[in-house]
Amino acid sequence: MNWTWFHKWGSPKWFYEMSGRWLPWLGVAAILLLAVGLAWGLAFAPPEKYQLDSYRIIYIHVPAAFLAQSCYLLMAIAGVVSLVWKMKLADVALQQAAPIGAWLCFVSLVSGAIWGKPTWGTYWIWDARLTSMLILLFLYFGVIALGNAISNRDSAAKACAVLALVGAVNIPIIKYSVEFWNTLHQPATFTVTGKASMSADMWLPLLISVLGFYCFFATVLLMRMRLEVLRRESRASWVKAEVARLSGGNR
Amino acid sequence: MSNVFTLLLVREARLLFRRPAELANPLVFFAVVIALFPLAVGPESQQLRNLSPGLLWVAALLAVLLSLDGLFRSDFEDGSLEQWVVSPHPLSLLVLAKVVAHWLFSGLALVLLSPLLALMLGLPAHCVPVLLVSLLLGTPVLSLLGAVGAALTVGLKRGGLLLALLILPLYIPVLILGTGALQASLQGLPAAGQLLWMASLTALAVTLAPFAIAAGLKISIGE
């Protein structure tokens, strides 16, 4: 198998150039998909039979929750790459993804609480899914706090990689144990109406906004990573040239 | 290989017994926290009895966590950790010995103290074996997972609070299974299922955690 495509990722300069080319496309795709998905979902999709219009927050809530989970997976993969192949870019990706993941997790919790009030009659219940999302938020906080606490950049990134991996091994265990706890302590008083029963004109906008959130996430992550690469490589000549070009263009 | 393990175990035991007061601290903490709860929620025996599984487990969990803060600190400061890293023996085996020694003298002591506090909270005597077995299986997991956090934060000046932030979310499965087993036996149900799950967690932690601890220590030393 040809591995050159993989080795290229080891070069911050190559990444900076390539991501600069991808960024506009991703950004446009994110804006288009989000605009179509959200407008369709929030304004044109038919109201739900029991929840009427309040269900429309699903078009924010579900994509955010999806992304919050995928982001931790991405961090764990980046952690493996960072620890096995010592690739600096994986360190950058891991640390830059953590705050975005935490925000998405927070958004999904808050939108879930807002949705919960009209449908369940309460902002918060100790339901298995809600609880595991809350724990995921705490796991993100842990990674961010550890990254901030260690002053040396390289060891901070490696420590975050180890922590992300330990967390990723634990996430399935936590998830199952929380479900087990939930069935033990309280019966399922509330059930969200089944997803399988959603009709196409409801789930199609959902699919589009999920894709839009993914593109949005990729755009933000690439932007943050590019900035961090510039910061880390600030002594390299290509970075100096790039910064001079950028600041010259602004003046 | 196993020779190094026992040697290290003996060294750790000797070091711990030079300072018996530090060994007693987690135990006193455990007892004090348990004593706080009746003061906070009221002395009604029925209520305390129902709450006792959770109280005992949360107090034990915090006691283990606090005792772990200094686990690698003195070895880090006097350079022993660097010697471990450069030694020909696998670092994961050495840290396993260290954690086992720590558990033998703090975790096991907590387990032995727990029946007394449990009976004071009004837990019926027939639940005590389940409490002992669940703590016996659970506290090693707490020690091993906590040691991962301690290894990652050993080089930091104020690692204590950070350690709690990193590790407490990972303690949740142990807490759920431990209190679940105790809750079941309090209601007269069999607790074997939860205890078996807990045993599998222990096996998983013993096999995987030493590698994570070793990786964490290498990072902290390399800084």
Automatic annotation (TrEMBL), chain A:
Chloroplast: is it a keyword of this entry? no
Residue ranges annotated for the Cytochrome c assembly protein domain, each copy included: 20-185
- Membrane topology note: Multi-pass membrane protein
Where is it found, in Gene Ontology cellular component terms? plasma membrane
Q: What residue ranges are annotated as transmembrane? A: 22-45, 57-85, 97-116, 128-147, 159-178, 202-223
Against InterPro entries, the record matches this protein to:
Cyt_c_assembly (IPR002541), Cyt_c_biogenesis_CcmC (IPR003557), Cyt_c_biogenesis_CcsA/CcmC (IPR045062)
Q: Where in the cell is it found?
A: Cell inner membrane; Membrane
Pfam families given in the database record: Cytochrom_C_asm
Q: Which GO terms describe its biological process?
A: cytochrome complex assembly
* Major localization listed first in the record, in broad terms: membrane
GO terms for MF: heme binding; heme transmembrane transporter activity
The yes or no answer to whether the keyword Transmembrane helix is present is yes
Q: Which UniProt keywords apply?
A: Cell inner membrane, Cell membrane, Cytochrome c-type biogenesis, Membrane, Transmembrane, Transmembrane helix, Transport
Query: Superkingdom, according to UniProt?
Result: Bacteria
* Family assignment from sequence similarity: Belongs to the CcmC/CycZ/HelC family.
Q: What does this protein do?
A: Required for the export of heme to the periplasm for the biogenesis of c-type cytochromes.
| Protein name per its UniProtKB record | Heme exporter protein C
Give the source species. Pseudomonas mangrovi
Automatic annotation (TrEMBL), chain B:
* Bilayer topology term: Multi-pass membrane protein
> What's a single GO BP term from this record?
cytochrome complex assembly
* Swiss-Prot/TrEMBL keywords: Cell inner membrane, Cell membrane, Cytochrome c-type biogenesis, Membrane, Transmembrane, Transmembrane helix, Transport
Q: Transmembrane segments in this chain: where? A: 21-42, 54-72, 93-118, 130-154, 161-183, 195-217
Q: Which InterPro entries match?
A: Cyt_c_biogenesis_CcmB, Cyt_c_CcmB_bac
Q: What's a Pfam family this protein contains? A: CcmB
Under the GO molecular function aspect, what terms does this record hold?
heme transmembrane transporter activity
What GO CC terms are in its UniProt record? plasma membrane
Q: What is the first-listed, main subcellular location in coarse terms?
A: membrane
Compartment list: Cell inner membrane
Functional summary from the UniProt entry: Required for the export of heme to the periplasm for the biogenesis of c-type cytochromes.
- What protein family is recorded? Belongs to the CcmB/CycW/HelB family.
Q: What name has this protein been given in UniProt?
A: Heme exporter protein B
Q: Identify the taxonomic lineage of the organism of origin.
A: Bacteria, Pseudomonadati, Pseudomonadota, Gammaproteobacteria, Pseudomonadales
Task: Name the encoding gene, please.
Answer: ccmB
